């Protein structure tokens, strides 16, 4: 078994496009492509790859970059793991369930590898940034061929080449976040809407969260690089961008010439041809009034704010290391509602954090009732090895966590339904994303508030903004008629 370099240090510094790194990447993509051409000539078909992506939009975006590299290296794509010659798992470590799924899938692939010894398995993403996971895979899943982390994604072609030419297990994980590598290409899944990373990593160390350990410290991209990327996307037909970061409100602090997130939003709003701008995720402790004013003033900024509360109890928030109280949070919402009356809110809620009492749960329900979220992602607390909360006393039993979760979800769903009902007979602007099902004249799109709208049309308005009158609101989507 070969280990190229585990826990290799890389200096933490800002950097834009590095021609050397990209050149090396190009060279290895060529080398693998030549190997694959030979393989294809022998087998009469190209090798087939599947990327299975778990977790957040950051991972989705990383998978798009892998997708580009794989296409350049001569792979055909499939959605079916059982058809693939190369299976890549881009993993998530935020909750235990996603990790369990990966281990389950690895077990199944072990059987497949017996009848298909050529099958290659690669695992990347946040799980691999945890040393105990790498040890576990090296020890108990020896049929895996390649492991790499989140900071060295751009080195994938070189690592894959090494694996193919040595046929040994290749492992490369960097424990310190590196530079921001600019100029990497990606195969966007859906051109109309695109995710754009504006920063990487997180400095917050919420006590339950593994992300600061797997994605490293906060690094912001230069505003000009972000603007250039969005302009390029718009020139290829993109109408909506979502600016991505673990904590977008602290964007720009680490730059040589610091820029605030509100300033960046105003710059992005100036891009001609772009229709809509969204962003996530905002941390309540860092959101400034200027961000709310930017949403109020900028025509392209959608009236939608994803502001994770996690829980409504001030004492539990303190144990979570969140740096705001229930009252602070509600004040931000009040301000946002005042400045942007048609703002829709969404949030992340965590149930069952260690020591959570029924009073804490009631505080969370109070916040849900006061804010009235359009939608909320509700999570059951999952113990993550290496985080401070994993060692806290009074872990809540699984069954009790589920009981509380159901209680909270009832409020979330009721309010979602009520908000949908308020749309009845209203006319809303919809960015049409395409047909909701093949061979039908049913189309689907999103409002500025991120509500899904379905409507029938004989004409294809995909990529355009249309006006739709809502006739039949459902809890999680709105049905209507096009009025143009
Ligand atoms: N258990 C459950 N949910 C978690 N999240 C982060 N860490 C954990 C954990 N250990 C949730 C938070 C965060 C979202 C992306 O995932 O709510 O906002
Ligand atoms: Fe995790 Fe907190 Fe950072 Fe969000 S802000 S990624 S929850 S540590």
UniProtKB/TrEMBL annotation:
Note on cofactor: Binds 2 [4Fe-4S] clusters. One cluster is coordinated with 3 cysteines and an exchangeable S-adenosyl-L-methionine.
SMART domains per UniProt: Elp3
Gene Ontology molecular functions: 4 iron, 4 sulfur cluster binding; metal ion binding; tRNA-2-methylthio-N(6)-dimethylallyladenosine(37) synthase activity
The keyword tRNA processing appears for this protein: yes
Listed InterPro entries: Elp3/MiaA/NifB-like_rSAM (IPR006638), Methylthiotransferase (IPR005839), Methylthiotransferase_CS (IPR020612), Methylthiotransferase_N (IPR013848), Methylthiotransferase_N_sf (IPR038135), MiaB_methiolase (IPR006463), rSAM (IPR007197), rSAM_horseshoe (IPR023404)
Enzyme nomenclature, EC number: 2.8.4.3
SUPFAM superfamilies: Radical SAM enzymes
Keyword annotations of the record: 4Fe-4S, Cytoplasm, Iron, Iron-sulfur, Metal-binding, S-adenosyl-L-methionine, Transferase, tRNA processing
Annotated Radical SAM core domain residues: 188-418
Species: Peptacetobacter hominis
Catalytic activity: N(6)-dimethylallyladenosine(37) in tRNA + (sulfur carrier)-SH + AH2 + 2 S-adenosyl-L-methionine = 2-methylsulfanyl-N(6)-dimethylallyladenosine(37) in tRNA + (sulfur carrier)-H + 5'-deoxyadenosine + L-methionine + A + S-adenosyl-L-homocysteine + 2 H(+)
Protein name: tRNA-2-methylthio-N(6)-dimethylallyladenosine synthase
Domain MTTase N-terminal: 47-165
Compartment list: Cytoplasm
Recorded family membership: Belongs to the methylthiotransferase family. MiaB subfamily.
Lineage, highest ranks first: Bacteria, Bacillati, Bacillota, Clostridia, Peptostreptococcales
Self-association and partners: Monomer.
Top-rank taxon, per record: Bacteria
Gene behind the chain: miaB
């Amino acid at each position: 078994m070969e280990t190229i370099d585990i826990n290799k240090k890389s200096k933490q510094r800002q950097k834009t496009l590095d021609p050397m790194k990209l050149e090396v990447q190009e060279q290895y993509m060529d080398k693998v492509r030549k190997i694959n051409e030979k393989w294809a000539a022998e087998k009469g078909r190209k090798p087939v790859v599947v990327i299975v992506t778990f977790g957040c939009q950051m991972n989705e975006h990383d998978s798009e970059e892998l997708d580009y590299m794989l296409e350049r290296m001569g792979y055909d794509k499939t959605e079916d793991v059982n058809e693939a010659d190369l299976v890549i798992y881009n993993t998530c470590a935020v909750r235990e369930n996603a990790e369990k799924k990966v281990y389950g899938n690895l077990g199944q692939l072990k059987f497949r590898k017996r009848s298909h010894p050529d099958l290659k398995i690669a695992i990347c993403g946040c799980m691999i940034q945890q040393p105990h996971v790498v040890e576990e895979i090296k020890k108990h899943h020896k049929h895996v061929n390649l492991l790499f982390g989140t900071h060295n994604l751009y080195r994938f072609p070189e690592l894959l080449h090494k694996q193919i030419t040595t046929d040994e297990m290749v492992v490369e994980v960097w424990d310190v976040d590196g530079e921001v590598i600019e100029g990497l290409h990606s195969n966007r899944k859906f051109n109309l809407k695109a995710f754009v990373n504006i920063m990487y990593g997180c400095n917050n160390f919420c006590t339950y969260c593994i992300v600061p350990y797997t994605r490293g410290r906060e690094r912001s991209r230069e505003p000009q690089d972000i603007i250039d990327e969005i302009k390029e996307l718009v020139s290829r037909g993109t109408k909506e961008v979502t600016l991505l970061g673990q904590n977008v409100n602290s964007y720009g602090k680490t730059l040589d010439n610091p820029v605030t997130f509100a300033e960046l939003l105003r710059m992005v709003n100036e891009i001609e041809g772009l229709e809509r701008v969204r962003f996530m995720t905002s941390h309540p402790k860092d959101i400034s009034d200027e961000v709310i004013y930017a949403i109020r003033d900028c025509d392209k900024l959608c009236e939608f704010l994803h502001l994770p509360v996690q829980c409504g109890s001030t004492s539990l928030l303190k144990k979570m290391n969140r740096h705001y109280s229930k009252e602070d949070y509600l004040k931000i919402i009040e301000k946002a509602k005042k400045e942007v009356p048609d703002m829709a809110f969404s949030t992340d809620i965590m149930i069952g954090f260690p020591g959570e009492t029924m009073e804490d749960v009631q505080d969370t329900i109070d916040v849900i009732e006061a804010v009235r979220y359009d939608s909320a992602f509700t999570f059951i607390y999952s113990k993550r090895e290496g985080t401070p909360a994993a060692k806290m006393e009074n872990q809540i039993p699984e069954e009790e966590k589920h009981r509380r979760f159901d209680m909270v979800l009832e409020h979330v769903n009721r309010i979602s339904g009520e908000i949908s009902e308020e749309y009845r007979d209203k006319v809303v602007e919809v960015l049409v994303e395409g047909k909701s099902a093949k061979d039908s004249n049913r189309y689907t799109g999103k409002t500025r508030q991120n509500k899904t709208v379905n409507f029938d049309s004989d004409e294809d308005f995909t990529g355009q903004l249309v006006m739709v009158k809502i006739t039949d609101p459902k809890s999680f989507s709105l049905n209507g008629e096009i009025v143009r």
